[in-house]
């Protein structure tokens, strides 16, 4: 099997062209190949598959073998892969995901995709649709207690569940302890991605992310969108936010006319390989 390793600001996956390759047992394959000591090393694998109603379908498996609905950094890499490998030579693409069909706008210069802007859709605040078990109509700056500690959280879905906490110093957060505690909290029936956000000014914020099924990663596109939205609804920033993640920066805009969220950032090939 041939694969390509790609990364979007440090969020790295192994990509398989399933127009040509047939992948069996993708969950087991993700666990084996993602291991950074005994495998190739990645946050998971992404299958690029044919679709009847889009340019392709993106199927994601995390490093623990669980299936993900959507990945913002991963979908940018899919766009770059489709264009530069000649599967689809268009600068506006449609990609089918478990969270619906997403539109990608490619910034192409001399045949190279330099960045990708993604229509991420509208944020979801209704607890039952995130999902989060909560009695109020929204979860915005609400207190919860987990393992005897109280946290104030904001919850939003960008195709997958996100729980955002605002902190004074994001680098000082013991993410390896708090991240899994919150990910597996009883109020999250499908677990949740946990974002820790430090607001820098009205247009910038810094974040770290604990991704369900993967642990701390260098970046999370849907998490950056959810964090930017949370900054806005908590009146900490405007609706255009540059999010600084461990792996790099993403530009997020929450359009106040259409309620649509747009994310723009880079995507890069790391290397190609073959698995016996």
From TrEMBL:
Compartments, record wording: Cytoplasm
Entry's Gene Ontology BP terms: lysine biosynthetic process via diaminopimelate
A Pfam cross-reference name: DAP_epimerase
Binding-site residues, substrate: 11, 62, 72-73, 160, 193, 211-212, 221-222
Domain of life, source organism: Bacteria
Enzyme class: isomerase
Reaction catalysis annotation: (2S,6S)-2,6-diaminopimelate = meso-2,6-diaminopimelate
Site (Could be important to modulate the pK values of the two catalytic cysteine residues): 162, 211
Gene Ontology CC annotations of this record: cytosol
Keyword Repressor attributed: no
Alphabetical UniProt keywords: Amino-acid biosynthesis, Cytoplasm, Isomerase, Lysine biosynthesis
EC number: 5.1.1.7
Active site as annotated: 71 (proton donor), 71, 220 (proton acceptor)
Predominant subcellular localization, coarse grouping: cytoplasm
Keyword Ligase: no
Pathway given in the UniProt record: Amino-acid biosynthesis; L-lysine biosynthesis via DAP pathway; DL-2,6-diaminopimelate from LL-2,6-diaminopimelate: step 1/1
GO molecular function, one term: diaminopimelate epimerase activity
Coiled coil region boundaries: none
Annotated family: Belongs to the diaminopimelate epimerase family.
Family matches, as PANTHER family: DIAMINOPIMELATE EPIMERASE, DIAMINOPIMELATE EPIMERASE, CHLOROPLASTIC
Subunit comment: Homodimer.
Protein role: Catalyzes the stereoinversion of LL-2,6-diaminopimelate (L,L-DAP) to meso-diaminopimelate (meso-DAP), a precursor of L-lysine and an essential component of the bacterial peptidoglycan.
Protein name per its UniProtKB record: Diaminopimelate epimerase
């Amino acid at each position: 099997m041939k694969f390509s390793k790609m990364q979007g600001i440090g969020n790295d996956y192994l990509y398989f062209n399933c127009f040509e390759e047939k992948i069996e047992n993708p969950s087991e394959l993700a666990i084996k190949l993602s291991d950074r000591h005994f495998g190739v090393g990645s946050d998971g694998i992404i299958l690029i598959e044919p679709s009847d109603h889009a340019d392709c379908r993106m199927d994601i498996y995390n490093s623990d073998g669980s299936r993900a609905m959507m990945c913002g950094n991963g979908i940018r890499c899919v766009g770059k892969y489709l264009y530069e490998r000649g599967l689809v030579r268009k600068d506006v693409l449609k990609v089918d995901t478990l969270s619906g069909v997403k539109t990608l706008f490619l910034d192409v210069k001399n045949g190279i995709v330099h960045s990708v802007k993604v229509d991420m859709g509208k944020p979801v605040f209704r607890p039952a649709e995130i999902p989060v078990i909560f009695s109020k109509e929204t979860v915005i700056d609400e207190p919860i207690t987990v393992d005897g500690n109280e946290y104030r959280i904001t919850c939003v879905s960008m195709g997958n569940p996100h729980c955002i906490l605002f902190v004074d110093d994001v680098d000082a957060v013991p993410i390896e302890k708090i991240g899994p505690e919150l990910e597996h909290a009883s109020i999250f029936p499908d677990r949740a991605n946990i974002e820790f956000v430090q607001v820098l000014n009205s247009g910038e914020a810094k974040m770290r992310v604990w991704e369900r099924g993967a642990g701390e990663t260098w970046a999370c596109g849907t998490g950056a969108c959810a964090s930017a939205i949370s900054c806005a609804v908590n009146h900490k920033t405007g609706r255009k936010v540059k999010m600084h993640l461990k792996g790099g920066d993403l530009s997020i805009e929450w359009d106040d006319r259409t309620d649509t969220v747009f994310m723009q950032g880079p995507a890069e090939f790391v290397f190609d390989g073959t698995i016996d």
